Amino acid sequence: MPHLSRLTSLALAIALLGGAPVLHADQAPITPPPAADQKAAPLPLDELRTFAEVMDRIKAAYVEPVTDKELLENAIKGMLSNLDPHSAYLDPKAFAELQESTSGEFGGLGIEVGTEDGFIKVVSPIDDTPASKAGIHPGDLIVKIDGKPTKGQSMMEAVEKMRGKAGSKIVLTLVREGGKPFDVELTRAVIKVASVRSQMIDPGYGYIRVTQFQVNTGEEVGKALNKLRKENGKKLSGLILDLRNNPGGVLQSAVEVADHFLKKGLIVYTKGRLPNSELRFSADPLDASEGVPLVVLINGGSASASEIVAGALQDHKRGIVMGTDSFGKGSVQTVLPLNNDRALKLTTALYFTPNGRSIQAQGIVPDVEVARAKLTRESDDPSLKEADLQGHLGNGNGGADRPSQAAPGKPARPQDDDYQLSQALNLLKGLNVTRAD
């Protein structure tokens, strides 16, 4: 995509992190504010004196010895954590884990988290990980980790406790929808996340599932579209893009994915205090999807980069957005490397959909609301048909008899147990019927 090669280094440094620090873009320093701006407001000397006095009192009177380094690092963490839920100070270990996660492989539970009312909240479990297999749901509150309360812990502290050696066990105490706390025991694993999966779910109808927006996700979606086209042997009749429980990721990948479905127009733009944090991303004329009818699935676990894609396709009326309201994270984080292998993950801008919508704390509202539900299928009654009756008349047009018989076993399909997905497929089929008419 030619326009992506012209992005500034800042664009490559921006990541949209849906709650948890698991993805980031290539690090590149952001230009600091001009010196004149820094001199505009003098340093608050009274507060600095208070800070120094507090440090001295803690060192002198705290029940256990504490070093200047510990106090200063805690002060920096507090400085970042009180800005917003997504800004954070990354020590060398946390920074290294953030870098590793871009490749789609990291150790832990496979759970994306944010904060709410001082508790750690599940944004979404990642597919095929210990968290998803244990039945953890988006919106669950993690109130304890191995019996220790999480109230007041920073997101980074909680993430560090949940990470660990593969094979080791951990107990999370969860609260779901205001109910009673319950424990879930999980076994940590090496999390290898394939960000894109695809398959034909019905003749002529394709399905692409994006679990995260990693560095190569845009390229992988392009490959998935080609694969589905080849499997179908011709242009698809319809396509479902599943962004449910996708916590976000790299901004550039979100732009690339949206660009696969658009021929022209704005995809997303960002606004921040610094001039080079104001970026605009537009589609190129190529349309890898060939204009196929599209349904985009979202839910409360769809955050950040997922909302960029859904919002762009919705604003351009390129597809029908179905499901439930998305998470509502409309801020942009930039990873700023510091000395000694440390970094800041700092909120530097807000993003806006092509029509100028900010979804911060609001989310994307689907065009067609479909709540999650459980599908139970009833088998047909084994009743007789006309063709089973002795001496029945034949079909006057020469058609073969169709007596009752046991239905042959059919292979399981994703839509068989997924109500939202089945509704998306039905909508696509209905669109094709009306267009044919």
Automatic annotation (TrEMBL):
Family: Belongs to the peptidase S41A family.
PROSITE patterns, per database record: PDZ
GO biological process: proteolysis; signal transduction
Annotated protein name in UniProt: Carboxyl-terminal protease
EC number: 3.4.21.102
One cellular component (GO) term of this entry: outer membrane-bounded periplasmic space
Keywords annotated in UniProt: Hydrolase, Protease, Serine protease, Signal
Skewed-composition ranges (Basic and acidic residues): 377-389
Residue intervals of the PDZ domain: 95-163
Region (Disordered): 377-419
Residues making up the signal peptide according to the UniProt record: 1-25
Broad enzyme group: hydrolase
Taxonomic lineage of the native organism: Bacteria, Pseudomonadati, Pseudomonadota, Gammaproteobacteria, Pseudomonadales
